[in-house]
Amino acid sequence: MPDTVWTIAALLSAELGMAWLAQAMDVHWRQVRGDAPRPVSRALRPLGYAALIAALVLCLLANTATMAVLVWMMLLAVSAVSVAFVLSWRPRLLAWTWP
Amino acid sequence: MRTATLSGWHIASRVVAGVVGSYVFTWGFVALASAGLLTAGLEFHEGTNLASMLGLLVYLSALCFAFIAASLARGWLVLAGGGALMTLAGWWLSRSLA
Amino acid sequence: MFANFRLSLTWLHTWFGLVLGFVLMVAFFFGSMSVFDREIDRWSLPETRIAAQPMPSFDHILAQRFAQMTEPEAEQRAAAEKRVTQPLPAQLTASNWNAYTTHRDPVLLTYVGFAVPHSTLPDDTIYAEQTIDPRDGHALHRDQLALGSGFFYPMHFSLHLEWHDIGYWIVGLSAMAMLAALVSGVVMHRKIFREFFTFRPERNPLRSTLDLHNLTGVVALPFHFLWALSGALIFVGIYFPVVGAMMQPVVEAHEHEEALHSGLDHDPSGKPGTLASVDAMVAVAKAHWAGKGMPGEVGFLSVNHVGNSNAYVSIYRDSTDRVASAEGLHFAGATGKVLFEDPPDGPVTTVNAFLVGMHLQQFRHWTLRWLIFIGGIVSCICIATGFIFFVEKRKTVHARQGRAGSRWVDALAVTTVTGMIAATLFVLVANRVLPESLADRDLWQKSAFWGAWLVLLLHAMWRSSALREARRSKAWAEQTWIIAALALAAPLLNALTTGDHLGKTLSAGYWPVAGVDLMLLLTAGIAFVTARRLQRSTTTDDLPVAQEPEHA
Q1: What are the extents of the domains in chain A?
Q2: Is residue B20 part of a domain?
Q3: pLDDT tier at C60, thresholds 50, 70, 90
Q4: Does B74 map to a domain?
Q5: Which of chain A's ends, N or C, has fewer CB atoms near its CB within 10 Å?
Q6: Contact status, residue C492 vs residue C521, Cβ threshold 8 Å
């Protein structure tokens, strides 16, 4: 049971990381916010990568090392695609991910 | 893309070089690498598996090379010529193994 | 080939991607189906809808079954007759007995190997195969086709083209083309990082199709690369049998040394011998695994040099919790004593075993297996959008010049996207509709699949005449409606013919059948929505085609 919790947490961390990495890019920030990026938003990129690494750690908590790496790799793909689709259809939804 | 300026023969030659020429090159690579690794003392499965695994990446590289080579002559020389040479070298090296 | 490196690789990407893309669609679609092969087997063989069973007792059940399997498959025997220097004896003797099961299998696969005497091939063996119910050992009828593991799965790696293994070679070449398409795709895609999350469905079809192609290609790039590479690695012995072909003395020396080291003889002794209790050996193996902190069930069991004094029994654990398969334990047949345990793999063989195990995903990890399935579908979307982009980019020019290129590509694209899905659903429907007592029921089902696919190809070719005026072929929408209808019919027919409707399977928690039915209904829903959108937009399709975007 706890394994499922770690995996869901890993997915959420990956989604957050991808959402942050997307908004670290000018074009996507404007899609989500409608205004120009702020200086503090420079933290988005390193935080985005950190969230992706955190997802890997969470995967390692739920699986043996070899399985964890494969799960993580697939979760990254799923989260990247889902963030891309959200940006296409309801970009404002991502505004929740950053103050 | 301006394939209109390239003859059908040129395109066909590139494709055959990419598919068949690469195969010859890779065969030679696997032969030389297997013999070489086993001569170097690697265990049988370790050496042959490594040669095969690298062989797939070599085929991929050779396939791309067939299309980016500066001329058809160079492409064929490297792929077919190199493949034949490595096959021979691998076979010759393996004779002292068993 | 061209003035610069990027242009040459673009050509490679376009043309190898196009031609071998049709093969890759088959490989990735049926590969995705194969993730759930055992579940599809349960759906297609209602008599096997029982819980997964562990390997049964050898002494009480398997031994009797093997004793009855005295003839190899007729086709294999006929083929062997062509490669021997002396005529085959009327009765061949069994040289090895094998049984295989996994944590998902209610039924057990058994096969017996018969050594072919005086063959031109070294270690030539032909086989007899049977699927049995492990609870009592009775064999499933020969006409029963397991649609998942027996039809979709072999389609994935061999296209069912058996003449000189040509299907394996075509799939292998397409795997290399996939890798080349990934490498060249990255080289071509100049804004690969900037456009990582870019998908603009509101723009013209050419731009949005390319966006989707790039998106699905890039975000799952590690998956595409690893699965294509590991797939080719599984059959690398077929593609590059270099050491066997050129260094036979080295191979023989190694086999000799290994036999000495392990005590497992390569050849039968020729002297008769008895077989001790195999169940006792299994008990020893299970205790051994438990002692190493990895308790488990038997996955694979084989008796080698059957009937000889030097017979040995190899027992392998079903690897549910590891990516690679586990080491085997070997017992002396006559005494039941442990002869040898396979040592841990060296670093290269470990990587090899990991890649193969990763590709075959027989482990028990449903999250990861579902993710792999999704990855396969994403690959299909990448390939399909490649075809659509190819056609969209050229259809206006071709229409104006009276060229048939985009017509043909569009027809083939419809056939390998909607056509292939529809044919797959059709065989599931046929599986339920064909009478149970029909002779050669397996051949009827295979014919249903190929026949349906051929009809859908002809339909696609007919409808592609729209491309002559650069309009979208109606086949896309029409075949999507067919998919919706078939995907709805299949679970209904399952309920009607077996009584295992969703209410029953869900409340009993029988996920193999419930899962397939649910996926079919989901497919019907998606197809319905898609068909309606395609229908609406085909009528408003006479818009001027926007200028083509440059490759990103």
Answers
A1: 2-97
A2: no
A3: very high
A4: yes
A5: N
A6: no
Instruction: Evaluate whether C364 touches C321 at the Cβ level (below 8 Å).
Output: yes
**pLDDT at position C234, please?**
97
Chain B residues inside the 8 Å CB shell of C252: 98
Q: Which residue, C448, C449, C420, C425, is CA-closest to C26? A: C420
Q: Which residues of B touch C (CB under 8 A)?
A: 1-3, 6, 10, 14, 18-19, 26-27, 30-31, 34-35, 38, 42-53, 55-57, 59-60, 63-64, 67-69, 87, 90-91, 94, 97-98
Q: What is the pLDDT of residue C541?
A: 53
Domain ranges, ordered by start, for chain C? 5-45+370-539, 52-153+252-344
Assign 3-state DSSP to chain A and report helix, strand, coil percentages, each to 5. 85, 0, 15
Write the pLDDT tens digit of every residue in C493-538.
999 999 999 999 999 999 999 999 999 999 999 999 999 999 887 6
Question: Residue C545: pLDDT band by 50, 70, 90 thresholds?
Answer: very low
- B33: in domain: yes
Interchain contact C347–B (C-beta under 8 A)? yes
- ipTM topping 0.90: yes
What is the chain C residue with the closest CA to A85? C199
Q: List Cα–Cα distances, C252 to B31, B41, C118, C257, C339, in angstroms.
A: 17, 17, 18, 9, 22
| pLDDT of the residue at C551 | 47
pLDDT at B58 over 70: yes
Band (B3; pLDDT cuts 50, 70, 90): low
Provide, as residue numbers in chain C, all residues whose Cβ is less than 8 Å from the Cβ of A88: 199-201
